[in-house]
Amino acid sequence: MLSLMVLLPLISNDTALVERFGGYFLLAVFAISVDLIWGYGGMFTFGHAAFFGGGGYLVGMLTTRGGWFLPIPFWLALVAAVAGATLLALAMSYFVFSGRLALRGVEFAVVTLAVAVIAERLANAGGSVSGGQNGILLNSRLGIPGVISLNKGYGFYVVAALILIVSYVSLQRFIASRSGLILRGIRSNEDRIDLLGYDVARVKRRTFALSGSLAAFAGAIYYTQFGIVAPGSVGVSLSTLVLLWVVLGGRGTLIGPVAGAILLPYLTNSLSRGNLLDIWLVVVGVILVVVILVLPAGIFGWLERDR
Amino acid sequence: MTAVLSARELTRSFSGLLAVDDVSIDIEAGEVRGLIGSNGAGKSTLLSLIYGQLEPDAGTIHFAGNDITRMPAGKRARLGMGLVPQVTSLFEDLTVEQNLVLGGLPKEPHATLSLDRAEVDRVVELIDLHDSRFIRAGHLSHGEQRWLEIGMVLLSRPRLLLLDEPTSGMTMAESRKTASLLRGLQASEAVQSMIVVEHNIEFIRLVSDRVTVMHRGAVLAAGTIDKVKANPEVQASYLGRLR
Q1: Strand, coil or helix: A235
Q2: What is the ipTM of this complex?
Q3: Residue of chain A with shortest Cα separation from B105
Q4: Which domains does chain B have, with CATH numbers?
């Protein structure tokens, strides 16, 4: 995977393609943030786009809206967006994971689904703050003004690749650590982890906050480069799409969701403008169904089945 | 002797049916207490009350000087209680070693996650799973899974170990090996005290010399195995059925 990342800009002169792959890398960061809580922690989320798109929205509002101390510079807005998403994730996880009525399984999934629905409705109804149905046009540019532009082409590709590599390696180290082992224990047998004396709610809260902040960070960069963030970015459809990437690649493998988040959007993008213009959605759907039926653990889950 | 555990007048009912009826029990430091009785006698419910998986309707439980009557199970574990439940409950997709590490890591929320590797090595030898330490727990035999469960709890260094039918589903050879493992724990003082729930009275004889007999939720008799076996009420209500 790493060699492909290095090779692509060397063998391709197509700047648009390289830039598109930069975007896929950020989607891959979003996918591994979901894999952390679902694949490794067993917390099935149906609303993680609220964090990914929320990062984009926060940066957009902080950098384009006026009044009080606004607008603020992009890098400051990025820090504030990640901090805001982390606080939201902590607040949400405090209510759903703590106490005797702590939610898990389907109940937790339903709450996250509700969060995505509410986030989309708020984005739609937010008037001049959120831009309503039109969303927010982001005018910030990645890079250092007057020194280097990282918003387009190869510059953006390198930034996105570095973000993916650092996020991937950090999560891999976390999962291999003792804290990561406790998280995998929760996925495997939450009741036993609780009976052994671990503070399950605390582990889940921290993991959920980590995942939410990573998704928000990736989303803030992604939508800044994309130039627009709209209500669909925080809603149910993107939250479902990321689950498909994770399932296709193999949940609980980390590398699988990365592959899924690059392959599926690439396939979708390529098929939707070739000869299959009219039936590309059907083709993608059939591929997904076949993979899930034949390899229920996903591509990398199947490859790693005996390890 | 000091009581590690002192439960007083514990009562618990389910939909009007008394599962545990006014039971008091004291466990001394260093004691291994057998808890026997027929099916539905209330043994496992009593263990669940002691470990905090169930709350009593009435009565109190003190453990290591603390009133733990309303304390959740996880906090009781952090105070030094360990449970090997009746139904095997492991981390099946993790390896034997990872299961043991999860048993041995500090459980306090802000503790550094340090672990004595030598202790894991010692326990893996004790439960005779050295050759399987990198195998997933779900691939072990039933007996090996039960030993792994004991090893996992042992690594948390419990003051009081509760074992709910540790030999259930085991072959005779595996049961004997389990008895030998528990005797080893007693001898090495790896565990201060134990409560062992069992149907198999010969197994109890191998690991303990004091038993409490339960019948219909209440304590029917308590004392040495020979004294209890000679009790006419115990013979009528429990031992008679075993013959």
Answers
A1: coil
A2: 0.87
A3: A178
A4: 3-242 (3.40.50.300)
